[in-house]
């Protein structure tokens, strides 16, 4: 077999294939439920109601989606430039660390204080990605492995600090940081609902990334560098500078996930702050085909699957790791579907 | 300084060194085979997790140790087949598919583990491979015990590395594989199928990665627990680069890396080690891998068609 | 396998081969036969369907209709292995060699069953040496293929076919990468081969070569056989007429009026890049109102010179001087700012971004000027592109279509428009018409001449000696990174230039 490009994919192709990927995911989920000895329809139903079945569940899903929007955007921005940032987890923890340090004893309070802490957190994440990117542009070191390895390093740095200087003396021996001061905790988005402003910031970030990608010069440069580095360089696009800017934006966005979790949801930094939000960001970005609007939708979907699976697991006893399995297969189905939108398979 | 010398002169250091290197050797050979054929396999981390689980489960359910190795190998090959089919004929991004396979294989192992043992908190143990001293050689002072009193799976790792080198550089199949990684058009022009060669390489390579994972449960830790692979797969990718895509040098790299790792564990227990947080020592392997990549980046001779998809008859 | 009633001395017969790619019919009921010991030339323009036909014969593509017979036996379609086993050997235009493998490994690839245990290099090496001796194809078996010259690589390709005991040898545009002298040597090898009973098909669009090397010529146009004639019974003009379907008049180019020097290279050296040589103490003057033609075999430093003028590399020694001043900083953007318009060698890899629209490609070099407060002015960009499409006759679905949908000629016209609309003082035209049909070639050439007449200094790099001699006011030859003196229009023939291309003149000078 070989692939032949489809010049102008029709609407059926562009919508039908991704829909088929979704159906395949559902079928996979049913098979997994069966393998766990549970009724597939009931299991999937429990996942759906667990995700959006009540006000509490829906808010939980929105809260879970918040860091995923940030990390999804971080990955989407980087992948557009074919900058393989698999280190969103590390950048997230860098942002969380700075937020915990600055937030515990804020010098400036209120909204300006939050803004300053957010900026500092973003800067920290940007710097974490800057290293691998400079190694890539200056020495040609592949960024996939370096960003992956830095995830482990950053987690150990956080662990070291939480057991050392940052350890909360009031924490009853648990390795966690001193709480973020009330004056710089992100307020609730709507009074009375357990949803903080981090979600609002995530939506604003998605809007800004859309503006950047679709309308700004930098977005054009990023796409040029991603689609054909040699042609971009030849035409005078400053490839190295564009990659560095991409890295700063991407690392900053991932770090805001950490900022939003610590200053918004949790109020403190612990080692289990992120159950792999950085890695899941890759799934979110790919499901969204790297579009910022799609990232929001995909993050909600992914968060729903996680939250719903947890609830389902408590009720039906199917291991909650079904969520990771569902999402990993959704990712593979979706990238295959997107490829088949652009290419048709020709036998011989 | 004397602390360091004491460490190097203890037989237990050499035993640990070779034991730490063994799973890396299997998985590094697996990745090297994939990359020599032109496919970057980022599924390695997850495939190692699944291999560790599959090997352990087989033995836990009453299978023999070698059966465990075989099951792990087959499971790894199945994930490799999936990776190969998606990236080679369908030409999907090797980065995305590789990460997807890692997530899939890891989640599959954890899901199945929870399914098999819903209530267990402390992971059940199995009886792992016993050391198998080679008469005479094992008595060599200092390094004898390290290299010649290991489990049979360790010896198998060195045999696999030797076979990998032999097949790659001394057989028609190896020549075709390397050519598929250098210039797939040259392979196609000889009427050989690049698709088949690459899928085959990824399947076999992934099988070896899974055996590397199985080493952890069947020969090192004797039980399966979460996070047990802990970035070893990514380190193996760095080792392939460090070894310049040559099996011998990659094995050397794995041993060097293991020497460092075995050394740092022992250094933690010295007076010097006690002054530093233990996390500093745990960080060292990852930082060392990054350093290796930086040092080798200038000299490495990457397979020319690594990560370049090949679409037959493209005009 | 069925025996058909073919005469025994017919080694190859193509019968009614038809192949379509979407709406395009690349081969339309093509039939062709080849006798033992015969050299047949397959002549046609770019895009006439020659390469497609040979790829079908060799099993890379499957024909929609028609059969291939070798030695009287019908080949199963779509399997190169069957073609190789039947004794067909093919030397592709783009060599299928792995650079990092040795010559011997490249030859050995695929010759032994995959699952056998030994490669048997020693026996193979002896056989390669013997074949090289017999056919006059000197090459070292242990050399790394990437380190060989283009001519040597072609020898490896031919050895590959001979090692497989090919009876029919197919050569796709074999002389495109050779000096006239190397071409002569190749033809001598072919004569040795045919004397031993091999048969040869060689694909070309160069008339004089076809006349010199072939016994018989088959002419393809738009995928159809439009003529078949013995070389003894025809002439180059007659073949040209058959090839393009009309009498062709080569354009007469009036001489330019040279003005001041706009760009000067002063003793410039650039680093070698792998097997690609850099420049070796090159001095060059580009004058306003003049086309300087750079002749040479590909891979002799043209890429380094083009990269230098494009701003991609900087000299390691010597100076690049623009209107009496050396630029402070040298980059693609600095080159553009200095008024250098660049038509790159490879329009797919460096000239355009395939998944960008025409508009996005059209502004690739000028987008900084179209930026207001960080935002791109799409409306102006689009208007500019619409004008470009009209002025340069780019046939396309519209400014928002992806450029990958365009033919090579239309893609090149868009690049030409992008370059010329910036009103460059200096134009670097690197292989500007490679792979284009005759209409597009004439169009690109006329635009370059018009730009020269308007006062631009043009550097034309081409491997096609006819193009160089037809267009240039001054010709210089590049060989192994060294540059010959300039020769004014009409003072040099192909034979003398060929001597320089082979490096002979430099040795006298040194």
From TrEMBL, chain A:
The keyword Signal does not apply. GO terms for molecular function: transmembrane transporter activity. Coiled coil: none annotated. It is found in: Cell membrane. It is a multi-pass membrane protein. GO terms for cellular component: plasma membrane. Keywords: Cell membrane, Membrane, Transmembrane, Transmembrane helix. It comes from the Bacteria. The chain crosses the membrane at residues 15-34, 65-83, 90-108, 114-135, 147-166, 195-213, 234-259, 279-309, 321-341. This is ABC transporter permease.
From TrEMBL, chain B:
Its main location: membrane. The keyword Transmembrane applies. It is a multi-pass membrane protein. Signal peptide: none annotated. It holds the Pfam family BPD_transp_2. One of its GO terms (molecular function) is transmembrane transporter activity. One of its GO terms (cellular component) is plasma membrane. Keywords: Cell membrane, Membrane, Transmembrane, Transmembrane helix. It is found in: Cell membrane. The chain crosses the membrane at residues 6-27, 39-59, 65-84, 96-117, 129-148, 155-177, 197-221, 233-258, 278-297. InterPro entries: ABC_transp_permease (IPR001851). This is ABC transporter permease.
From TrEMBL, chain C:
Its main location: membrane. Residues 12-247, 263-505 form the ABC transporter domain. One of its GO terms (cellular component) is plasma membrane. The keyword Cell inner membrane does not apply. It comes from the Bacteria. Keywords: ATP-binding, Cell membrane, Membrane, Nucleotide-binding, Repeat, Sugar transport, Translocase, Transport. GO terms for molecular function: ATP binding; ATP hydrolysis activity. PROSITE patterns: ABC_TRANSPORTER_1 (PS00211), ABC_TRANSPORTER_2 (PS50893). Pfam families: ABC_tran (PF00005). It is a peripheral membrane protein. The lineage of its organism: Bacteria, Pseudomonadati, Pseudomonadota, Alphaproteobacteria, Rhodobacterales. CDD domains: ABC_Carb_Monos_I, ABC_Carb_Monos_II. It comes from Paenirhodobacter ferrireducens. It is found in: Cell membrane. This is ABC transporter ATP-binding protein.
